[in-house]
Design brief:
There is one protein chain. The chain is mainly α. 75% of the residues lie in helices and 2% in strands. The protein has a two-stranded antiparallel ribbon with strand order 1-2.
Length: 244
């Protein structure tokens, strides 16, 4: 990791207010629409339904923000950054790690804002340990989506990366059960849901709300998605740098 380059990356990314507004405003609006219309006593999967929706919308916001780093990568490729990178001491691994850290930092505001709305307007009551666990697991659940952002950034052109990222985010969230519980989907859709990282990150985050504790199987699947997608992103970076 290169600290100076990371700080530069953060400042540059924060100038793109549209990305931050979308990743924060969209999940909050969806939480207000779906969450506040649920009866307080309703449950889903053995946990409070309003808490279930809160975590799902928080995950949607964090994955949207994490995947937005692909736009930065595409812009750098278009500007010839990969060619310049070969002349600097910055290693490919350090560059990729910087982008992943940037994605994780971008994932923090949506999580905090949705959880704040859940606590105040949704009246979600959790213990301190539960809040900390849910927040931490949800935050780390953005890792596979950070890797997806890397891959998109290296296969898409600057003028198409935002539409591709936006469409991918919507599809992954919809088919992964973040907008509608998988139990309420048609049987065939349940199998499709399990093929998406959003399903497993949602399972991991929401399991922190249950008395049984974290779903270790789902957590291992999330780690697997992160490793595989991260490897693909690193390979794409090296191939693109070599061509430059």
């Amino acid at each position: 990791m290169n600290r100076d380059y990371l700080i530069f990356d953060i400042r540059r990314t924060l100038r793109n207010r549209r990305v931050m507004i979308f990743s924060i405003l969209m999940p909050v609006v969806l939480f207000l629409i779906f969450g506040l219309t649920i009866p307080k006593q309703a449950t889903e999967g053995g946990i409070s339904a309003i808490a279930y929706v809160m975590v799902s919308m928080a995950m949607f916001g964090s994955m949207s923000a994490a995947m937005s780093s692909g736009g930065v990568i595409a812009a750098e490729r278009d500007g010839g950054w990969n060619r310049t990178l070969r002349l600097t001491p910055l290693k490919p691994q350090a560059y990729v790690v910087n982008k992943v850290i940037l994605s994780l930092l971008l994932a923090v505001p949506p999580l905090l804002v949705v959880f704040l709305f859940g606590m105040t307007m949704g009246h979600v009551h959790l213990s301190v340990a539960q809040w900390v666990t849910v927040a931490l697991v949800s935050w780390l659940g953005a890792l596979p989506f950070a890797a997806i952002g890397l891959v998109i950034g290296y296969i898409a052109k600057p003028d198409s990366v935002q539409p591709i990222t936006g469409l991918s985010t919507m599809l992954i969230a919809a088919f992964g059960g973040l907008w509608l519980p998988v139990d309420q989907m048609p049987k065939a859709m349940k199998y499709v849901a399990e093929l998406t990282p959003a399903y497993w990150t949602g399972q991991t985050s929401r399991s922190a709300l249950a008395q049984t504790g974290l779903d270790t199987h789902a957590l291992l699947v999330v780690i697997g998605w992160t490793v595989v997608l991260g490897f693909i992103g690193l390979r794409r970076f090296r191939a693109d740098t070599a061509r430059a």
